[in-house]
Q: What sequence folds into this?
């Protein structure tokens, strides 16, 4: 029996940083988005970004927490070059949200949700530490679970749902990955707690938990802080914990208590669970529904492009998402609009084109949007009619009497040969299922 | 008069200066600390912007105790001279805004913008026989003020006349979105005086702790004003007992976090210690640059907020502060202002300051810390005496205009 708790840090997407007007853009060249405030120059003072506060409140609501109507910041004091002030403005005694939950194969209780500033990013090069302050002072939301997770798989499910929720809230900075401190303990070792600090990325968090569970089965477990070596896929001991680190918290005296009661009424957007229910209600199988509704942008595109639900879902999952994944692009970067996609779906579903043509059109869409209907007409890509197909079938049967004999004597391959010959004659514009049916009908 | 400045240039008309802990773009601002040596701010403090916009000449930056840690303006980096009392050169100016008070005394038509955390305006104003006004916490923007204790720091004015003090306040007061603790209030015309007959309360027992000469001089002033002011006794027992300890716990806890940013890594003092480890490097820089008093306050302040002690010190001090504020507010419902001598002693001689123990110095703040802790506006007015002496008047929050009118009775 394992007990796993997660402390997840997610970067919020905001126009500017948490306490100054610098753009919240971590992709810019090093130290461009900085000012006296995020660099901690003497005399500068923080000023709270309302957008970040609102987004944190949305996260609290989606995670079903109790909400405080006051925002109270504290100073967490420690010396490290990534902190320009050598303290971090965070929330300590009074987090914005407490006592929430998220269901992921069982209820995972959320202990607290709070807002804080991210430190700068650090790169180690030889003996030097290089600091990029673009990230310094950008808003982070910290989500702490109770140790209610019992397996790596459940942790994966939890994180997947959490990530999906954050995406639906549209609060997540897509240019940063989730970070987590992971607590793992098991019954065999009397739940002696190991904390693995600073694991970056969804996959790595999962790998780290898997590794740590296995390690704790075999090794003697100490109360300690460990690190995660992603290259080796191993955790390693950083320091034994005789006592908790002492950050000497004080209330942040530069920011008065902020009344946030006016934001508590913010309403949540429709979240993934409801969208999945909607799709399943339309007859789509739950696996397809989960995949399509995983991303709110894909979901919203799908809803606009959908023809008959089951057919559309199958096409989206196998074809459209395949193209996006293969080309590593998001639906936003994919040129066609939902209207153009709908046109394509109609052509395919009504049998005007076959899957191969549809796929070619999806690939051609990468270069830009266009009307599939006009394109099919112009390039003469419509499928052949039943009558046209029958003509080809008759021709092929006349030319290959021995194949007919073989089929009749139980040689299944001969049928494929005959269908292939008809397809070749039709220039690929026949529906192979239709051809097959026609051949069988004529020779049996 | 240059002896009161860390940076000085000539100016005309009514002139301004800023305490060194108020940053001025491109002019070295170090709050008298070696650790900021060479630091040229990249922006102007809001009060500096306001004064510049109003078109006044700025004479420069005035000397102070390191980061405001001191009562005599004798705690400065050795590269600065120690300012002498303009009336008695063998005595101190008081502190921490000693340079500002000295400049206000010596220079005609000069408005010295200073700063008080626990008494750093009233104290040197009293010692240099000038007027010092500390406004309500939040009336004047702290943006650009090098922090000592953020919940206590207030920018104010020292000058030689009420007219100049009120003009100075008029120029710097007002809401500033860059300082989250600044308050949105209507700013009246501070420069217009009104004759009033106020009720002033003298706190019970406060005269018992001051120098007998000061007590006598204070009582003389009270007697002479019997027709213009109604005096009555009030009681501030909690403040008398707990204000100094509460003040120092909060001030040091905040100061110890504020000073953490000074590590010699990104600005200010730097030296090639040939150390690769940033921890070791920062320790060397901090050991070399911080004065003894800064180190004391970092250590004490850190101690009061550590797990296991936090409840007994920092958290408790915050709760007591609330009680002390309420005590003041209750008294101020019954009187227009509270009055007592500003300092319990006369400006000491340099040689006497050396022998004082830190605790003795901290206790000298008893008369000034209460109003500072409560964020209440107060003014120190010089009175006739053989050695520089001031009376301090405190009014309710945002009653600066009334405070100045009361001050008028003492001018």
A:
């Amino acid at each position: 029996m394992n007990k796993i708790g997660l402390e997840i840090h997610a970067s919020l997407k905001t126009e500017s940083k948490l306490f100054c007007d610098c753009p919240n853009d971590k992709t810019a060249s090093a130290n461009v988005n900085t000012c006296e405030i995020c660099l901690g120059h003497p005399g500068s003072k923080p000023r709270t970004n309302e957008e970040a506060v609102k987004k944190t409140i949305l996260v609290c609501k989606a995670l079903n927490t109790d909400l405080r109507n006051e925002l109270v910041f504290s100073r967490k004091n420690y010396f490290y070059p990534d902190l320009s002030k050598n303290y971090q403005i965070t929330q300590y005694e009074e987090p914005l949200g407490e006592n929430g939950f998220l269901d992921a194969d069982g209820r995972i209780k959320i202990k607290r949700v709070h807002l804080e500033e991210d430190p700068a990013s650090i790169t180690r090069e030889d003996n030097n530490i290089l600091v990029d302050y673009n990230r310094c002072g950008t808003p982070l939301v910290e989500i702490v679970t109770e140790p209610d997770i019992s397996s790596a798989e459940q942790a994966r499910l939890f994180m997947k749902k959490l990530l999906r929720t954050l995406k639906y809230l549209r609060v997540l900075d897509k240019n940063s990955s989730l970070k987590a401190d992971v607590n793992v303990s098991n019954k065999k070792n009397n739940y002696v707690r190991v904390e693995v600090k600073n694991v970056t990325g969804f996959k790595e968090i999962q790998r780290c938990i898997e590794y740590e569970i296995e390690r704790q089965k075999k090794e003697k477990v100490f109360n300690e802080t460990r690190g995660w070596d992603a290259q080796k896929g191993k955790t390693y001991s950083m320091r034994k914990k005789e006592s908790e680190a002492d950050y000497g918290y004080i209330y942040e005296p530069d920011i008065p208590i902020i009344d946030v009661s006016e934001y508590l009424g913010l309403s949540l957007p429709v979240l993934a669970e409801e969208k999945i229910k909607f799709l399943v209600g339309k007859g789509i199988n739950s696996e397809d529904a989960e995949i399509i509704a995983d991303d709110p942008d894909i979901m919203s595109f799908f809803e606009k492009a959908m023809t008959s639900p089951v057919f559309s879902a199958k096409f989206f999952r196998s074809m459209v998402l395949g193209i996006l994944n293969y080309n590593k692009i998001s639906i936003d970067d994919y040129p066609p609009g939902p209207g153009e996609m709908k046109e394509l779906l109609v052509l395919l579903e009504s049998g005007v084109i076959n899957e191969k043509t549809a796929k070619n059109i999806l690939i051609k869409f990468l270069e830009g949007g266009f009307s599939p209907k006009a394109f099919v007409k112009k390039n003469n890509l419509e499928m052949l009619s039943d009558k046209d197909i029958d003509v080809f079938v008759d021709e092929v049967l006349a030319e290959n009497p021995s194949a007919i004999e073989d089929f009749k004597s139980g040689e299944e391959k001969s049928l494929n040969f005959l269908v292939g010959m008809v397809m070749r004659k039709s220039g690929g514009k026949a529906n192979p299922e239709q051809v097959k049916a026609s051949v069988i009908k004529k020779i049996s | 008069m240059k002896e009161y400045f860390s940076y000085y240039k000539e100016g005309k008309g009514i002139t301004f200066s800023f305490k060194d802990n108020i940053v001025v773009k491109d002019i070295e601002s170090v709050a008298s600390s070696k650790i900021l040596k060479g630091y040229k701010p990249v922006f102007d403090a809001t009060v500096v912007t306001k004064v510049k916009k109003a078109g006044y000449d700025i004479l420069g930056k005035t000397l102070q105790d390191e980061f405001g840690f001191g009562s005599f303006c004798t705690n400065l980096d050795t590269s600065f001279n120690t300012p002498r009392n303009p009336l008695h050169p063998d005595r101190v100016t008081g502190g921490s805004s000693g340079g500002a008070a000295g400049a206000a005394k010596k220079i005609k038509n000069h408005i010295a913008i200073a700063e008080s955390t626990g008494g750093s305006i009233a104290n040197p104003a009293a010692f240099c026989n000038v007027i010092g006004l500390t406004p309500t916490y939040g009336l004047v923007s702290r943006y650009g003020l090098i922090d000592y204790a953020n919940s206590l720091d207030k920018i104010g004015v020292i000058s030689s006349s009420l007219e100049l003090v009120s003009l100075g306040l008029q120029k710097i007061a007002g809401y500033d979105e860059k300082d989250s603790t600044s308050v949105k209030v209507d700013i009246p015309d501070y420069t217009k005086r009104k004759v009033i007959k106020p009720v002033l309360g003298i706190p019970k027992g406060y005269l018992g702790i001051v120098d007998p000469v000061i007590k006598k001089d204070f009582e003389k002033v009270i007697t002479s004003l019997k027709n213009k002011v109604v005096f009555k006794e009030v009681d501030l027992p909690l403040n008398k007992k707990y204000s100094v300890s509460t003040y120092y716990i909060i001030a040091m806890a905040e100061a110890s976090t504020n000073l953490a940013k000074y590590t010699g890594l990104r600005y200010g003092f730097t030296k090639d210690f040939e150390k690769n480890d940033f921890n070791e490097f920062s320790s060397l820089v901090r050991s070399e640059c911080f004065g003894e008093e800064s180190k004391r306050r970092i250590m004490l302040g850190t101690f009061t907020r550590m797990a296991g002690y936090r409840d007994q010190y920092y958290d408790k001090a915050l709760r007591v502060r609330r009680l002390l504020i309420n005590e003041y507010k209750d008294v101020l419902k019954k009187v227009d202002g509270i009055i007592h001598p500003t300092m319990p002693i006369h400006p000491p001689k340099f040689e006497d300051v050396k022998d004082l123990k830190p605790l003795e110095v901290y206790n000298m703040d008893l008369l000034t810390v209460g109003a500072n802790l409560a964020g209440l506006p107060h003014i120190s007015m010089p009175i006739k005496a053989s050695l520089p002496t001031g009376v301090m008047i405190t009014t309710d929050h945002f009653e600066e205009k009334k405070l100045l009118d009361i001050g008028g009775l003492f001018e």
